[in-house]
Amino acid sequence: MPIQIRARSRREEAFRHVIRMRDHEIVVDEPTELGGGDAAPTPQELLAASLAGCTAITLQMYAQRKGWDIGDLEVECHQRPAERGRPTAFEVTLRVDESLTDEQVDRLRVIATKCPVHRILDGEVMFDERVERVGSPR
């Protein structure tokens, strides 16, 4: 049964928001030069972190199923700034143990593109926005 994905963001101050998901919470903010308090990563940094984390977990799960010891794995994700008229670009670098065979490295490169976050970013995305009026807390 798929896990329902839901996140709710609430403003704390300036641009700082607390986001709650299931029994977890994270904070996002903007750098001071953009009017934030630089108290946490930006939402864009969390997007890159989601891609890096999901890729790493997907690769680890695949290697475990194959019975491969891939040692320490590092995934670095860099999101290049978006330019008008050009798609957002991510650079994903896999750092793997030098003892892996060329075949294993090639397979891991393919599997990296199959993580759920990569598929979301690579596919067509649709949005259904709505605004709900709520009373102000006093």
Structural class: alpha+beta
Mind summarizing the main beta sheet? Answer: 3 strands, antiparallel
Task: Indicate the CATH class of the largest domain.
Answer: Alpha Beta
The number of helical runs is: 3
**Helical content, roughly?**
25-40%
Major beta sheet, strand line-up: 1-2-3
Radius of gyration computed on alpha carbons: 19 Å
How far apart are the first and last residues' alpha carbons, in Å? 40 Å
Number of domains: 2
Low-pLDDT parts are: none
Can you give me a brief rundown of this structure?
The protein is α+β, with helices and mostly antiparallel strands and 138 residues long. It has helices spanning 43-66, 102-112, 116-122, and strands spanning 8-13, 16-21, 24-28, 74-80, 89-95.
Please supply descriptive tags for the structure shown above:
2 domains; GMP Synthetase, Chain A, domain 3; elongated; 138 residues; 30% helix; 3 helices; 3-stranded antiparallel beta sheet
What does this structure look like?
This protein has 138 residues and is α+β, with helices and mostly antiparallel strands. It folds into 2 domains: 1-40; 42-126, K homology (KH) domain (GMP Synthetase, Chain A, domain 3), CATH 3.30.300. Helix content is 30%, strand content 22%. The protein contains 3 helices and 5 strands. It has helices at residues 43-66, 102-112, 116-122; strands at 8-13, 16-21, 24-28, 74-80, 89-95. Strands 1-2-3 form a 3-stranded antiparallel beta sheet, with no helix packed on it. A hairpin with a 2-residue loop joins strand 2 and strand 3 (24-28). The longest helix has 24 residues, at 43-66. The radius of gyration is 19 Å and the shape is elongated. The model has no long low-confidence stretch (mean pLDDT 90).
